Structures are given as C-alpha cells and as structure tokens.
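Request: Show me your protein:
***
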Amino acid sequence: MNNSPLMTVIIGGGQAGLATAYHLTRRDVPCVILDENEKVGAAWRKRWESLRLFTPGRYDSLPGMTYPGPPASYPGKDDIANYLEAYASAFGFSVKTSVKVVRLKAEGDYYIIETNDGLITANNVVVATGPFHHPRIPEYADKLKRNIVRIHSSEYQTPSQIPDGPVLIAGAGQSGAEIGLDMAYNNHKVYLSGRNPGEEPTVRGTFYDRLFTPVMVFAATKLFNIANPLGRKLRKQFFYPPRGIPRAGGTTKRLRQAGVECVGRTAGINGGYPQLEDGRVLKVNAVIWCTGFVTDYSWIELPIFDEYGFPAHNRGVVNAHPGLYFIGMPFQRTLSSSLIVGVGKDADYIAGYIASRMR
C-alpha cells in the first residue's frame, strides 16, 4: 500500500465512518475509508437473522440520502447493510475493504497507520470502529460441561445453531432479551439471567409508539446532550463504567408471554452447569453469552485513554493529539451518537473541525 501522506484516513466503514466521509467530501477534504470487512455493510449482515431496529425507517437515514424503505417500517439487519452499501456507492467514497489496521502511532506531524496491506501516512485520522470490539465472556465459562453448547451473541444467527432443550441466556439487556425471545418462539425453554435494566415507555409499532417516537428521538438527539447537566448525568450513568441501557418498551411483557423465565445473575459453574447468585443450578443444554463486549484500543499507541479504556476527547476531538478524532462513541455528544439517527451531526462537527484545521 502506498505510504505517501494522505489528507485524512477514516478507520471503519460503518455508519459513523460513512457519515464522516460524506461531510468531509462536502467540504472538499480528501479522505480514504479503511474497513476490515470484505464489503461495506458486512458487519450488519453478521448479526442475528431476526434483528430489527427500534426506530422506524423515517429516522434511519444518514446525511444526504434518505433511507429507501417504508417510513413506518422497522428495518432488519440486511436492510441496513444494503442501505450502507448503496450509500457508499452513491457518493463514490474511496473505500478500501479487507484492510485491517493493526497499529496506529504518531510520528512528527503525521500519523503512521500499519495495516495488513502495508503502511499509510496521514495528516488526520478518524477512528470510527466504535468502542465494543471483543466478546466479553466470563472466565468460568470454560468449566461448563463439554456437551453444553456455548456461543457469544456476536456468533448467534438463528435458533438452528442451538440444540433442543433448555437454554440459558446470560445477560438481560436488549440483545439477551431479543435472542431469548427468538429461542422461546422456537420451542426452547429459556432462562434469561441478569439484572433488568428497565425499559422505554412505549411499545414498537403501537399507536402510542407512533405518537411518542418523535418525542423520544428529540430527547435522544437533542435533549440528552453533554452540553447540559441532564445529559452529562445520563452519560455517566450509562457508560462510566459501561452499563446496559434500558430495553425497548414492551420487552418485559413479550418475555412473559413467550414463557421466558427471568432469573438472577449467573455467578459461576457448579458440577458443570451454570449456577445463579441465589445458588440455583440450571441443567441446560446451551448457554448464549449476551454479556457485551470489551473495549480494546491496544493497537493505538498513544496515551489518550481513561480508566475504562475509552479515549479522552471533546466531542470526538482528541486535544492531546491534534489530527486524531473518534466518531460513533457512546454519548459522544448525545444519547444517539452511536446510532444511525444521531451520528450524522457528530460527523458534521468533526468534518468541520478537520476542514478548519487544514485551512
């Protein structure tokens, strides 16, 4: 790969990276996107088959191109993947796929990006990989009986991966609840283990959802903002340290109706089977770890990270290292910063900052 200096390199070709490329292109700032996947949108295609967004299509657009599906529909994973692929093509972004960044360091006035395809030198680097990188699996997981199937939520696609019989879903956030419902609807006895993080007040697709979704989107994109005390309080509550955010409205009722048994936190293994914090042992045939992800920026060789492994930044701008930026971080500016509905404004801010710096 050519290592002559490039103006701006964006690491990550998901919605955050694409939105940043759009706003840079509008400002005539050349940029290149590096993505480790084989094609744009591939990360979405790897998610489970039944996944659907909790915001209708009218709120699922990136800047400059309206989501093409019905405004009242709830897009699936492949719908979003197709949209991202069409988005990159429509604006002619320079995207290099199957390029994995393994090291980033500063050298003089430039950044050196080491990839599986050679070195790149850049004036500006935008890290758009998000904060969740490796599956978090408890250390005691290896003590499960050998015949118990165990996978992380990142590996889950369909119920056909799981043998007949009872299943433990470890982790009661949105992913755990949705996968638990998927299993229950396919005739599995399901135990959903973990703390209930609460849920939003409206149920997807109902009259009240249509009535209050605009209010909730307004709150997530504008009201819950780090510029005000309420936003800063919520940011600390949800992500410092990282915790689960409330589930979509109606989830608890759906779990109950599907026959999912909600139990306490999984504390360890007893006799090869999962044991709950109250001492109860669950004789299950499979465990699905919906325990989240570990943040890993070890490939960035710069002293910019806090005690939780998150970069120290101001709305995505790393003041300690001019020319380095992050996009798609949780609550980067608002509660919606890591979502399609909110990432565009953060991208606009960072692109404007880069353009001003280059001038």
In short: The CA atoms of residues 36 and 98 lie 4 Å apart.
